[in-house]
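Class, carefully examine what follows:
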Amino acid sequence: MLDLKYVAQNFDEVTRKLQRRGKVDLGPFNDLFAKRRELNLKLEKVRTEAAAIGQLLAPSKTPLTREIAGTSYSQPLDEAQKGALKALSKDLKEAQRTLDDALAEVEGALEEILMCLPNLPQDSVPDGTSEADNQVVRLMGDKPNFDFVPKPHWELGEALGLLDFERAAKVAGARFAVYRGLLAKLERALVSLMLDVHTSRGYTEILPPFLINRASMTGTGQLPKFEDDSFKTCGEPEFFLAPTAEVPVTNLHRDEILDGAELPIRYCAYTPCFRKEAGSYGKDTRGLIRQHQFQKVELVKFTKAEDSIAEHEALTRDAEEILQRLGLHYRVVSLSAGDLGFSAAKCYDLEVWLPGQESYREISSCSNFEDFQARRASIRYRESPKDKPKLVHTINGSGLAVGRTVIAILENYQRADGSIVIPEVLRPYMGVSEIRKV
């Protein structure tokens, strides 16, 4: 969430930056903020007069004089003055209640606007309105060469008897899949590889809850804007199914003040992920690209503002390391302002080459949220006990999306006979060097 006072004091700049994302409407923000200021001034006056009446009505060793509602009162007070002040005090209490209610309504309306405003893009984010304007930062590795026409992963998996969409649809519905045998083991091996690599790089492994509450979803920016894209339980208590490990892991420190000496804090976590993919129907209807249920290993960092750009770059390189160890060709893309996720100030997508589809597809998004999530979730730190708390910066990225990594291995390591070579780094986990139809 953006800072209320910052938006008010820098309204034109904020508007300009938000317009880089596309059409963003701040609605009646300025009028509401002016009303908030007016109500606060009235409340301050009412409270000051109420406090002065309390002082005049209380015993005092030194006689007091106060001006209230245009009338000067001095101790000692006569009975008529006491009666007038008591009546005025009653009126002031009623006025304060009315003003408090009005202020709460205005502040609620301002918060509603702020909750629906996306983050401000960093200056280094490319201009543009869509993914067509994203900029390729670097290309890594070489595309594989085939002396045959490579097949897409869904054909390979089904021909091997290891990928079953028909039975998944019977069990659950569209956009689900059943893995069998060595394909299921490949997914498990990838999770283990990713966690082993990331924990060796200083990340602490977390196994968080997969069901999460509304406050956690709000803290990372999934709510209120994206509630329609989330799966949730019915009845009480209400839970949401984790759309990504970013949500439960970031909220581990919600409403906490961290020790600045411990930053940056680095976590990695495996979770299944659940998304309705609302608005994506008709896209990627074949295969594993866009499923309602999938698995990811997520990287999450809590850092100081002055370190967040460097830590974002480092996290992106950590996610890239998995692709490099697997020998996969990919590119790093800086998302344009119009293609940024809601909470991100900057985002790199890692896009792996899929020869069966002759295209690059996103396999990881590595985002710097700056203090956007931390303000919503109240995650702060202190350099020392005497210092004023500051908001942390949060950073996260997939390290990697496991199902899409399975896709990449199937398509990049396929042979003409339909068998699949297991990348060497996975063989200790798999116990085999290839996948063939049994």
User: Anything to note?
Assistant: The chain has a mean pLDDT of 96. Residues 79-115 form the longest helix (37 residues). The longest strand covers residues 359-370.
